[in-house]
Each structure stands twice: as structure tokens, then as C-alpha cells.
Amino acid sequence: MDDKHCGGKSSGDVLEMTAACCFSCQSVFSVNLCSTAFAELVKNITRAKSFRSRSSLRKPAIMVDYEKQFMLYLIDEKCYDKYFVEFDFLDGACFRALISKGLGLGIIAGSVLVKVPQITKILASKSARGISLFSVCLDLFAITIHMAYSFVNGFPFSAWGDTSFLALQTAIIAMLVLYYGGSSARSVVFGVCYSALVYVLMGGLTPLNYLLIAQGFNVPILLIGKLSQAFANYRNGSTGQLSAVTCFMLLAGSLARIFTSIQETGDQMMIITYGSSSFANLVIALQVLYYWNSDKQKKSSSKEAVKKPKAKSKKTD
């Protein structure tokens, strides 16, 4: 076999062909050429194997990165190492942080629908009887100030995110109270003015010092708003169109927020605010239980009063 043929064989991509060529080569030049080609081929095969091994590990590595990013949203780097590097699942501080984050996210998920029963109850009855507009507006103001204060301070969304949904739903309730009170124009004006207020407070136009002062007034405003609703319930001897589901969900959320505020922010003003809110929500929840039977009796008596005129009309006919 000539050198050209040997050189052609040695430049192939198949290992067996290269080996056969090297054995058949006669000259020193051909042997050197075949040896060089063989070494180059072995190097290429090694590279291909390493590339396949890296590509096979790429997907699991990406998945691990995504899992780590998700867990770092729930816990910090130190707790991540405790759980997934040292496998220390009994660390108390990390466990409290994880519970707090889970509670915060659960409260946010629940807040999406917390006042929807109240809204649907007003829409179904086409009446806002028993709902104090003064109480709703004060409650909305307190929620909005708290939301703006937390947002501007840069607190984690899990520590205050529920207030954004509560503010939206409370604003809708206020607009419905105005609408069914016979003033649709005021309802629209209220919505526009409230949107402008939110922009001013959260759009960087209000200094943090002013928000801190407003947050200080939040506790008495919140108590006055909630307790004025409680006084209206007492005066009417009924909770009217108040939704029991909404009242109990607000109570549970405010109680849980005391723990999450201690754990995630440590802000004394937020802790006091949620403590006061829990007290006021507890008063209204107890009123819902106390007036439960009286509301049912009033509904049944009103139905009977509607039926009696019909019975009289039949007799006259």
C-alpha cells in the first residue's frame, strides 16, 4: 500500500480505519502521519464524550438553580445552607422565618377574595344597609397609608402585599355604598380621587417622613373606623349587610400579620397597627355571632310582612 493511500486512511474519522492504516504504512513519514492522526482522533472522541456528559448534566443543573432561587425567596442564604447543605432541619430561627414567609404568602392569597363576599352580598341585595360609609372610608385610609408606608420602606411584599388587594376591595365597597345610596356621580368621583391619592402616596411624591407621621395616626384612625361600625351595629341591633365570612377572614389575617411583622420587618409601628386591627376585628366578629339569630328573625318577619298584604287582597277579591 502506498503512502498516499495510507495518508488517506489515516485522515478518516473512524478509529478502526485509522488503526488499520497505521499497521499497513511502510515509511517512517507515513507512520508518523498515522500516529498524529490517531492521536488527534482520540482527542476528538474524548472531547465528544465530555461534551455529551456536560450536556446531560446541564438540565439538572438548571433545575437546581431554579429550585435554589425559589427557596431563596422563602428563606435567606444562611437558612438555605442549613437545610440543603448541612441538612439541619431543627434550626429554630430558620423554621420561624419559613413559617412567617408561608403565612405571609397565604394571607396575600386569601386577601384576593377576603372582601369579595361582602361585595357580592351588596350587589345581590342591591343595598348597603347597615354599612357605615364613615367606617369604610377610615378603614380605606388606614389600609392605604399602611400600604404606602410599607412600599416606600422597601419591606418584603409578603409582609404587606395583602393590603394592596384589601385597598382595592375596600374602595369598591365605598363606591357601592355611595352608588346604592343614590349618588352614582359621587361614586365615580370617589374612585378617581382615590386613584390620584394612591399615586401621590406611592409614586415618590410623598416623603417617607410624612408617611411615618401618617402611619402614627393610623392606629387611632383604624380604631375609630372599626369601632364606629361596631357602634352602628349596636344601634341597629343587627349587623345588616356585613358578611360574616369577610369579618372572620379579616380577624384571622390581622392576627397572623402580628407574627409576620415581628419576624420579617420588626417595625414596631406595624406590629401596633396589626394588634389594634385585631382587637377591632374581634369586636365586630363577636357582634356577628351575637346578632346572628336576630338577623334571621328580622329576615323571616320581613317575609311574613310581605305575605300578609297578599292574603288580604285575596279576601277582598
UniProtKB/TrEMBL annotation:
Q: What segments bear the compositional bias annotation Basic residues?
A: 308-317
Tell me the compartments it is located in: Membrane
Q: Which UniProt keywords apply?
A: Membrane, Repeat, Transmembrane, Transmembrane helix, Transport
Gene Ontology, cellular component aspect: membrane
Q: Name one GO biological process term.
A: oligosaccharide biosynthetic process
UniProt KW Transmembrane helix keyword: yes
Q: Protein name, please?
A: Mannose-P-dolichol utilization defect 1 protein homolog
Source organism per entry reads Anopheles atroparvus
